[in-house]
Amino acid sequence: MVEMEKQVLTPVNENKSQKATNFKWRNIFRGDNRALWTILALIIILLADRMVSPTFFTVRMINGRLTGSLINTLDGAAPIILLSIGMTLVIATKGVDLSVGAVMAICAAVSAVLINRHEAGSDNILYYPGFVIAIAILVGALCGLWNGILVALFDIQPIIATLILMVAGRGIAQMITDGQSPTYTDETLAFMGQGTIFGMPFPVYVAIIALVVVYLLVRRTALGLLIESVGINAKASHYTGVNATVIKLFVYIISGICAAIAGLIVAGENTYADPHTAGMWSELDAIVAVVIGGTLLSGGRFSLVLSAMGALIIQSLRIGLYISDLHPNANLVVKAIVILLVLLLQSKEFKQAVGRLFKPVLKLRPVFK
Amino acid sequence: MSTNEQPALLEVRGLTKTFTATPALSEVDFTLYPGEVHAVLGENGAGKSTLIKVITGVYKRDAGTIHLNGKLIEPRSPGHAQELGISAVYQEINLIPTLSVAENLYVGRQPRFLGMVSMQLMNKKARKLLKTFNIDIDVTRDLSSYSIAIQQIVAIVRGVDLSAKILILDEPTSSLDRHEVETLFSVIRSLKEHGIGILLITHFLDQVYEISDRITVLRNGRKVGEHLTKELPRAKLISEMLGREFTETLGKRSNQITNSDSKHDTFLDIKGFAKRGMIEPFDLEIKKGEIVGLAGLLGSGRTEMGHLVFGINRSEKGEAYVESKKVKISSPRKAIRYGFGLCPEDRKVEGLIADLTIRENIILALQAKLGWYRHIPYKRQEQYADEMIEALHIVTTDAEKPVRELSGGNQQKVILARWLVSNPELLILDEPTRGIDIGAHAEIINIIKRLAKEGKALMVISSELAEVVDYSDRVVVLRDRKKLTELTGDEISEDAIMQAIAEK
Fold this sequence. Notes:
The structure holds 2 protein chains of 2 kinds.
Chain A: H1 2-9, H2 23-28, H3 34-52, E1 60-62, E2 65-67, H4 69-92, H5 100-119, H6 129-153, H7 158-177, H8 187-194, E3 196-197, E4 200-201, H9 202-219, H10 223-232, H11 234-239, H12 244-270, H13 282-292, H14 304-323, H15 331-346, H16 348-368
Antiparallel strand pairs in A: 1-2, 3-4
Chain B: E1 10-19, E2 22-32, E3 37-41, H1 48-55, E4 63-68, E5 71-72, H2 78-84, E6 86-89, H3 101-106, E7 112-113, E8 116-117, H4 119-131, H5 148-161, E9 166-170, H6 178-193, E10 197-201, H7 205-211, E11 214-219, E12 222-228, H8 234-242, E13 266-275, E14 279-287, E15 291-295, H9 302-310, E16 317-322, E17 325-327, H10 332-337, E18 340-343, H11 347-351, H12 358-370, H13 378-391, H14 408-421, E19 426-430, H15 438-453, E20 457-461, H16 465-471, E21 474-479, E22 482-488, H17 494-502
Parallel strand pairs in B: 3-10, 3-11, 6-9, 9-10, 15-20, 15-21, 18-19, 19-20
Antiparallel strand pairs in B: 1-2, 1-4, 4-5, 7-8, 11-12, 13-14, 13-16, 16-17, 21-22
Helix pairs in contact in B: 5-6, 12-13, 12-14
């Protein structure tokens, strides 16, 4: 076995075939030509934003900080991108994680409460900003582990299993903050939400790094393949020796960690943790982002990059509506309609139906000549 | 019996259907007369499924005409085809197992009394309807409480009752035992009397000769022949299907035992495995380089024995020894770690990861064995896939195609390839040749023999006795979830197996 492993794991000589050259690109845009429609939808929405606000693409450097609607869009999309990364993996295993918004609130609360003790003069090393961030992320991972145990070990349907933490999570966050919304002044934690590096908001870097790290983690190991295999056919995967339990635990833990980081960013932006509103409805944004990115809710093939684009679509839409003259009351309805349109663009059946609509017209044309 | 003077029920002319450059059907003619059973035969990839799917409106044809009772038709969907009078019943039954038989027959069109759905009326009608086919069962019981054969008949009766003039049966008998086939055939005969035209697709040649009136042979998307069944000798049919001369090798024992000598070591020794409701206690020993066949009727416990050995179901008692070391086979993962592999009976549900590519399906078992962190480099994966595609003659343009696009025989080969790549010591094959064409059939049997020669232990479950007799060194005979006996060497013959099953 050991000898065989060695042989299996060494790459073959390069000269064997050239087929591998375009492999990586195809991998990034998994899911047929959905990639095209997702990118197209993003471009159209950005152009629409530009029509609503002529300065949408204008980026200025003010006080060492890049400003402009485009930067705001990226900045605001960062937490959604983070959530959508974890959500993509969970959905690819045929699951869903409804608890991410609540986990954001829990981790924001944990960070605020701990840093308050540091600010109150405690010498305990655990209350130092670096440790606070680490602890908040650990708490997120534990939340994910909890979900994973319910789903993978106790075989509870994911929507119900994660609903438990979705409901309980805000209560837990309130217990942590003792019903308050604690504010803090710590600069390190504030940097998570407000900081800039080379003028670019820090959350943008966090989202990009998380995307790259998780991408490498699932595509440079066999995790991605095993996740897809469990999502497509759990029974056949079981018979083939795939350890679905470990895979599921893994994806929920990743989702929990992503939610924790998103929670730290949102708290950092405001320098306070509100257990009632932090991450409210974010789980739905994340799910929609994943779906727009072409990963089916029935599991299987997934693309992290396209999910991130889905998150960008949602955020540019939100910003566009925000800066438009549209009455705020109409925002949610318009958002829903646009998302519906994006999903219809990707639907094969819809495109065929539209194709049929135009056929008779084409046939009639010669009559008018 | 039909004659050519009778007006045709269904006339297909010059039918062509092309998928991404390769034609799946080219200029196929097909004629169906009322009251006849017309078998469409061919290897996998011959175009049988495509033909059905075009006729039932699943696919749109590229060229050609379809006339029903002399009228040109354009079926848009299976529902539309059904309205036109063409019903199809597939291998996988599209009924609702938790509804009663009567409800299944009338779902969507329940008889009403004073505007309300009337259960009594429905049950009465259902009973009457089934009676016309000499089927007398309790129509109020759940469909799932009946055998596959009855479920299939219910599906057929429902299709016929929906004003069908033409009934398409796709592999209707592949999961039925002999007795159930008889029941089904009697239904088919009474449908013939009602003037219904039946298009039959099957891999069982005996059944073709038993039930069909006419045979159309397809190969590579083209029609190669149309014959009256009684005028077509078997040898000619087989050579038409394969496109080459074929000498029947099955039925004779070609694998005269060389392997079960004492010089071969025991690989697996099982003592007293059992599970209530599945199988009674049994002992089983498999040597390296030995092929052990499991024979018995459907439901005799063949599959269950395989599942217990592979850890899909945990044995409640007994012990297992792999190369004399005591082991606990508590899950497929454990079994795989001891060097086992299993090709399951139901390829689609238990075997294939349909949306993954051929390459990914082939390396999956090995990758799962190595763990997620020891990733097989892409080049190496490609090499494995290409090697296997070549070695097992998997017909595909490349390894990056989703495996669901392959035909049944090629899918079976992909699952075999998956295990071969992971280099198991014991391979359990559950119905490895079911539902695949003659060419692939012979190839798979050759692979089985070759693996045994290489020193692998094989456990092969099959309902085709001739096949079991051909390759087994030892045959375990089962009946009613119980191991009856073992036949070795010269004792093995079809007669001996049947006798063992019949003996009290």
